[in-house]
Amino acid sequence: MIKADPSLDSNEKSLQDMLSHSSDFKATNFQSGDRMYRLFYLDTMIELEAVQEHIIRPILHQTNESTLRGSVSVLEFTETELLIDAVNAIVEGNTVLQIDGEAKFYLLGTELKKERAVNIPVNERVLRGSNEALIENVSTNINLMRKMIATPDLVVKYYRLGRRSNTKVAVLYLRDLANEEVIQEFERRIGSIDIDYIEAPGFIEELIEEKRFSLFPQLLISERPDRVRSYLMNGKIAILTDGSPDCIILPVSFWAFLQSPDDYQIGWLLGSTFRLLRIVSFIIAISLPGAYVALVTFDPRVLPFEIALTLQSSMQYVAMPPVLEAIFMLVTLEILREATVRLASPIGQTIGVVGGIVIGTVVVQSNLVSTMMVIIVAFTAIASFNIPSYEMSSAARLLSYPFILMSAIFGLIGLELSFLLVLAHLARLHTMGIPYFYSGMNKETIVDTLFRGPIRSLKNRTKESLAKDKTRIRIQKGKNK
């Protein structure tokens, strides 16, 4: 490690070399009494008024007995003798101060903070509950979480990931709830990451998950602080990344991706109904096109006679076989969805509506696909959009393709075999060493998996979090029965 030199000019040259002679690197001299001071900084990263008011002016007016720490009025004040620490501080927006003749740097916090205001969630619509969303600044996000969880048990640990990007990552958990073994396993995995840069939380997610070739998301991503709070209160771990408004939550089970914070803002009967609806929507999204292909190709006799006649009449002049119909329509739907997402909002909505109507009408009139197939694919898409998690919704849409192929080859037996393979895969998955597909039929878990039970029945925290304190609600005997 290269240490600081007592010479100001020597240190300035070293810092210039380490910063590749960047044009925004500046060095400013000023003198107070018999001492010469020099400031090193990037003028694109600091707040110049703060440097003038809180560093230069106080030093110029200090008395002989005053120390530097007692003179400057900045909250972030550290000392170092290493050049690499000074360079890292400059890149992060700090101002580095050196006194001529001293082989020491003073790192002063003067970062220019420009960020968008806290706004409503964009990707997770709020029906009831907090309308605040996480933003790209990790410090602001931690501020939101500390306001929501006002307890000294909330632990915040910082990591630096990326050899070149040096991305700031914050890990949050509640000391008295989070399982020590889960924390150690997570720290082992995040400590083993060796990469040039971290572009988004998706990088971290992919680098620490266990099954890299699984379609199912193994870590939950959310932009809602109230949702992050609820998982922290269950003993889970949250990961915030500087530059991204998304938070990674772990460990989670399969059922977490079918839950919404809004379930707990309404009565338990309505919450249970909507949760069951999402589970049914997931099953429809992965299997409905395959079931249609299997029925019309191999087993039309399973259907009632009137429905079979309707299907036969709609397919009478269709040129393509049912399996190609289904794949063609699903691919077309994905193209329309991508076009809607990538284009500007007004144009995207127009393309989605007009494109869907035009394409649906043309393909039916030209006898490329049947009217029933258009209805099946549209219903499948709507069912997939009913899943709260974008990652799980995308996985459901992709899973429909192998279901279609298996159904086209083996009929209804292929459909059943596809379900068995998916269930076996889910049963083998783990997240942070914890089983991913906890049974929803267990008496202890069913109250918060398949259903959203009454608050009084949610006495224990979720099993997959392995929380130290498993009891969530305590009701005294003889009261509130």
From TrEMBL:
Belongs to the GerABKA family. The chain crosses the membrane at residues 276-298, 318-336, 343-362, 368-387, 399-427. Coiled coil: none annotated. Pfam families: GerA. This is Spore germination protein. The keyword Metal-binding does not apply. InterPro entries: Spore_Ger (IPR004995), UPF0353/GerABKA_families (IPR050768). Keywords: Membrane, Transmembrane, Transmembrane helix.
